[in-house]
Amino acid sequence: xxxxQEADIAERLDDSHYRDDVLRLMFICCHPDLPGTQQIAMxxxxxxxxxxKQIARAFLVSEAAMExxxxxxxxxxxxxxxxxxxxxxxxxxxxxxxxLAMIYLVFNxxxxxxxxxxxxxxxxxxxxxxxxxxxxxxxQEPEAMGLLALMLLQHSRAPARFDAAGEIVLLDDxxxxxxxxxxxxxxxxLIDKAMR
Length: 196
Known about the structure:
Elements: H1 2-12, H2 21-29, H3 36-46, H4 52-59, H5 63-80, H6 89-111, H7 118-137, H8 142-156, H9 181-195
Helix pairs in contact: 3-5, 3-6, 4-5, 6-7, 6-8, 7-8, 8-9
């Protein structure tokens, strides 16, 4: 059972309440001494393994510009001797929005993959997994609920988004029997909870 495996992993990690090494690394990369765009770009490259081209596309900048951003971030870390320790509760709260942005960019990269790019498509699943872990850490945060709801609702339609030829199928033309209704119901419930 996946839930049991995640619980076991959480128990084995330190007492910082991250529940996951990838999530912990995302929080660490969001060091406040780095500009926000550098934090996210560096984390997406180092933690999520996205290519410079994929990150550049997510930020709507050229590959060269993104390569410079990541290089500057790494150089700043190396030169300044920044302490990249696991942040405590106060720092986690300060870095919350940046980590949510990273998770969304990972999801978007997976969501925009075509039907023949399974490896990239799995990024959407990873982002949903990280979104669930964020919601466990920040159970009362409507932003965490909203992000997870958005990803679940979008991903619930994945099986109907492309036809047999790999062409995108518009929402009105999708075969709704292919939609993942439990995932959709979970997303709608989260929206309701976030609004309350």
